[in-house]
Amino acid sequence: MRITVLTGAGISAESGLATFRAVDGLWESHRIEDVATPEGFAADPALVHRFYNMRREDAAAAQPNAAHLALAELAQRHDLVLVTQNVDDLHERAGSPEVIHMHGALAGALCAACSHRWSAPMVMSPEDPCPACARPATRPDIVWFGEIPYHMDRIWEALESADLFAAIGTSGNVYPAAGFAQHARRHGADCVELNLDSSANARDFHRRITGPASRTVPEWVASLG
Length: 225
Description:
Layout: E1 2-7, H1 9-13, H2 32-35, H3 38-43, H4 45-61, H5 66-77, E2 79-84, H6 90-94, E3 100-101, E4 104-111, E5 117-119, E6 138-142, H7 152-161, E7 164-168, H8 180-186, E8 190-195, E9 207-210, H9 213-223
Parallel strand pairs: 1-2, 1-7, 2-3, 7-8, 8-9
Antiparallel strand pairs: 4-5, 4-6
Helix pairs in contact: 5-9, 7-8
């Protein structure tokens, strides 16, 4: 069976990583425009680097939970394409052999001048020179609002060929990911949502499993045989 899974912030929340949209989430203390847009980076790169340095530190201290581990197990038994909106590496540390990070990753650095990419250190600053062009234009390799997510051609292909599509811990508010269920369903996939509550695009799924990911995902994976 060909399975495509999309994970969002909800799957890592149980590992202690703050989501953006929760009442006490990351947006409560930072404006989106200030820390997650190219314009915000241009206006105050030091603020943006401080924000992502803290997120990198938090992600390094977090541990994969039962949901991450269950998806790694699923990859051993089925033809799985795992797509995540998350920028942490918990899927990789849980043992998932391949993860498509559509919004980039905290582990990556990107030169805003020449587009060179390299592994990010734990702490980054605006003065860091690019290893390729030496210009101090280092930014996190994160897809910000107004930018195009990574690997979209591959993701659309996975959705179109999937027998089963599952969205786990996603809000259904952010496109293009919010349109994945509709696209997969149009191409014949069975679509299931696993979430604490109904997402904004709940109507696009055939069924819904409600509850914390650390419980529902292992149970769902076990049910697939």
